[in-house]
Amino acid sequence: MIVDCHVNVFDADQTLPLFHSLTPTSRPGAMGLAADADTLFAAMKDVDKAIIFSLRYKDAIGVDGDDEVTARAVAKYPEKFIGFAAMDPRRPDYMDLLVHAIEDLHLKGVKFGPIYNGVSLLDPRLEPVYEYLQKKNIPLTMHMGTTFGANAPINYGRPLDVDTIAARYPDLKMVMAHMGHPWYEECIVVARKHPNVYCEVSALCYRPWQYYNILVCAQEYLITKRNKIFWGTDFPWATVQESIDGLLNVNDHIEGTRLPRVTQDTMDAILHSNPLEHWWHGGYPG
After folding, report:
1. Most buried in the list 60, 65, 85, 258, measured by CB within 10 Å?
2. What is the rounded radius of gyration, in angstroms, for the C-alpha atoms of the chain?
3. DSSP per residue over 206-238, as a string?
4. Are 171 and 203 in contact (CB under 8 A)?
């Protein structure tokens, strides 16, 4: 089984000029800019399930999404997609939108980007969010790591704040996206410490030297043995095939050296990891 735990969905009219000016330089190599439901379904043909979410990152990267586009995609392709809600705590109606997304639209998790919304994980506005998610058995995926966004406070992308929140809310399942790059060591030690904290490797395949070091570090801290790391693409920023190839070929560029290898067990465990067994207490309720 292959589950893509990190897929972005948005319609063309939800992308702004800022998105089209910034995104082509956001990664090495070319990427597509479409991420509507039909595009996602075609792109995800080789995975069993995909966790999808819209982005409310209007002022940071120029995507002004909403939960309805996610819910419509799930309704159109229910066997393929699992929907998460987007959240922007700066909005006065953020809790109403969250409750609507979970209780009316029946989305199964939440995605939040502190660096994109300019709101720290330690901000008091997030306390009712954490309490609600913990009570409802809803996982929280967080963008952890830097970004290309023009209006994004980089310090909010560091993973260490997850340590504080995970201790305060031990029943809240938290997922650090992108292994907290470039602060991957912080991500790894936080995931190792807390039973309720996980991480995932989306959008790392196109930085192979960093990706290699991340996985070796994760092996050395033994979190690769504990169902802590999950696989994803961050589509449209990366495709399924390049994300699979990036993982399975991560040792290629150290061939002929005595550097440590990422083991086949590690690669297999990540590629065939199943968040549906771990991110909800008692397993995926869908």
Report:
1. 85
2. 17
3. T-HHHHHHHHHHHHHTTGGGTT-EE----BTSS
4. no
* Encoded tokens for 280: 């909800």
Least confident of 146-150, 195-199, 217-221, 257-261: 146-150
- Nearest to 192, CA basis, from 176, 208, 178: 176
Domains and CATH numbers, the chain: 3-277 (3.20.20.140)
Angle at 193 between CA 182 and CA 82, to 5 degrees: 70
Q: What angle do CA 118, 124, 127 make, to 5 degrees?
A: 110
Residue 259, strand partner residues: none
Amino acid at residue number 199: C
**For residue range 26-76, what is the model confidence (pLDDT) as tens digits?**
999 889 999 999 999 999 999 999 999 999 999 999 999 999 999 999 999
